[in-house]
Amino acid sequence: MRQRHLSLITSSQWQDYELLDSGNLRKFERFGPHRFIRPEPQAMWHPRTEAKEWQADGIFIPGKLGKNDQEEGEGEGGGWQLSEQLPPSWQLRYQSLRFLARPTPFRHLGFFPEQAAHWDWCANAVKAFTAYHKRPPRILNLFAYSGLASLHAADAGAEVTHLDASKKAVAQAFENRDMCAMQHAPIRFITDDATSFVDRELRRKKRYEGIILDPPKYGRGPKGEFWRIENHLTPLLQKCRQLLSKDALLMVLTIYAIRASSLAAHYALADLFDGMGGSLESGELALEESPLAHEEPKFAEGGAPKRLISQANFARWQSDLAMRGV
Ligand SMILES: C[S@@+](CC[C@H](N)C(=O)[O-])C[C@H]1O[C@@H](n2cnc3c(N)ncnc32)[C@H](O)[C@@H]1O
């Protein structure tokens, strides 16, 4: 198996999302026609533009830090200050996807733009699989939230099982599916606990060619099943490995908000795919600042450098077939 550590990956395909600037522990972003300022504890540098340019339709004001928050470096509390003109939700696009953005109490807007780098990587693998096997690969998206990875994979030709513990998250994924006019796409939506569902699929001898995992630090299944990444991720990964078919295509793991380097995710997947061939890559999913208005070329001479902000660690394995592409 080929292995590559410490890659920094970004998506260059967004039209409706931009990281306009960052600094002073905040980031300034555009989501379609609306601009937002959110806390960004990693932005320990100076903004490229002046404060008067940071005109936003929404600002997230962090809450007071609790004892644990201080240890983790950021608080969970706080809330949005939103302009009265801002609608409760609005439509954005990514390639052929259409979906809703809306400010949530968790500082984000209902999706994670840095994940687009994974969506494109999965789509290439799905197309290569379909061209070779003349059938769609089965992809399981655990912790699938508002569904953009599921919709993107289905649009590329996969048969998708979309699972999340939260009914509300699954309802948002339905909303996004309808917005993409993908009501007839082969996507099965399931509200369940990730580990319970994987156990059940193993008992039923079901198999998948690809698994996407984006687990939170803490969570609850619909019957109150407790999820804590430090305790439950390794056993779940081992079960996911058993769930892969003999034509295994991919596994992608993203980890937000725990104190670990991407090497932890790397070696966890390296154990699983030992002796399988294919390639394993790990590193950080990052957002990259867009060029400033007066800087046309990507690397404008003398222009302000475009900084990257790491948002999550990842590790991803793909088979030799997926790497060959279509
Ligand atoms: C970080 S979000 C995933 C983001 C998503 N992959 C995306 O890119 O939009 C974590 C999701 O895990 C779900 N979750 C939490 N505990 C769970 C559990 N035990 N089983 C399944 N899903 C769970 C939450 O409801 C939430 O939607």
Structure commentary:
It is a single chain. This protein has 326 residues and is α/β, with parallel strands linked by helices. The chain has a single domain (2-14, 87-324), classed as Vaccinia Virus protein VP39 (Rossmann fold), CATH 3.40.50.150. 26% of the residues lie in helices and 31% in strands. It has eight helices and 17 strands. The protein has helices spanning 67-72, 116-133, 148-155, 167-179, 194-203, 229-243, 262-272, 320-324; strands spanning 2-9, 17-23, 26-31, 34-39, 58-62, 78-82, 90-94, 97-101, 138-142, 159-164, 187-191, 210-213, 218-220, 226-228, 250-255, 279-288, 308-318. The strands form four sheets. Strands 1-16-17-15-12-9-10-11 form an eight-stranded mixed sheet, sandwiched between helices. Strands 2-3-4-5-6 form a five-stranded mixed sheet, with no helix packed on it. A hairpin with a 5-residue loop joins strand 13 and strand 14 (226-228). Helix 2 runs parallel beside helix 3 (148-155) and helix 5 packs parallel to helix 6. It is globular, with a radius of gyration of 20 Å. The chain starts with a strand and ends with a helix. Residues 69-73 have low confidence and may be disordered. S-adenosylmethionine is lined by residues 111-112, 115, 143-146, 148-149, 164-166, 169, 193-194, 214, 216, 219-221, 225, 227, 256.
